[in-house]
């Protein structure tokens, strides 16, 4: 099965529409880094179901959704139409965006670059930079290579043939990719500490460990919880590179 067939099949199931705590963390991160989106044009490069961009549109953004999966865009369009919200929908590969230079104020994606090889990551970020106005921020969320529960769960799922997301390479840092793409990496940090624990469900009896870990983290002060790396690495980049 090709990558495109895999993702068409996944999106055809109509999954990943629910608004969960990780979705909220991603949304909050974007709003904090961008300082709001009212009146701004925002690109999601690799949009999937578009559930977070839907919230951005509701907050006043003009949303551009790009994905190479017909099923993903069908799902996103249906999702937006059900809520009487508009977006631009483009069926395309994010390494060749069919958009003019400086078309958007901000660009972002989540759970996309880890499915590309190094050259693909560089080209995707080059394109995201090209279509973003000078000084606009590009934000990418990718699985954190230092998140142990995610790594263990992913490994267990791959060993048993249960991993549903195809080839996925966790990210230590996007610094070398940014440099080659001509972007300035402003900061990196992690989010989604509890979301990383969900991958333990792939491990036999892992839900017991997950419950214990959640209870342990729940009783820690916020500052101490911050010592542990989260599931997603957040890379904040400037198009002025």
UniProtKB/TrEMBL annotation:
UniProt keyword Cytoplasm present: no
Chain ranges of the Methyltransferase type domain: 43-139
Alphabetized SUPFAM superfamilies for the sequence: S-adenosyl-L-methionine-dependent methyltransferases
Keyword Hydrolase attached: no
Domain of life (superkingdom): Bacteria
InterPro entries named among the record's database cross-references: Methyltransf_11 (IPR013216), SAM-dependent_MTases_sf (IPR029063)
Gene Ontology MF annotations: S-adenosylmethionine-dependent methyltransferase activity
Gene3D superfamilies per UniProt: Vaccinia Virus protein VP39
Biological-process GO terms, alphabetical: methylation
Keywords: Methyltransferase, Transferase
PANTHER family: 2-METHOXY-6-POLYPRENYL-1,4-BENZOQUINOL METHYLASE, MITOCHONDRIAL (PTHR43591:SF24), METHYLTRANSFERASE (PTHR43591)
UniProt-recorded name of the protein: Methyltransferase family protein
Organism: Thermodesulfitimonas autotrophica
Source taxonomy: Bacteria, Bacillati, Bacillota, Clostridia, Thermoanaerobacterales
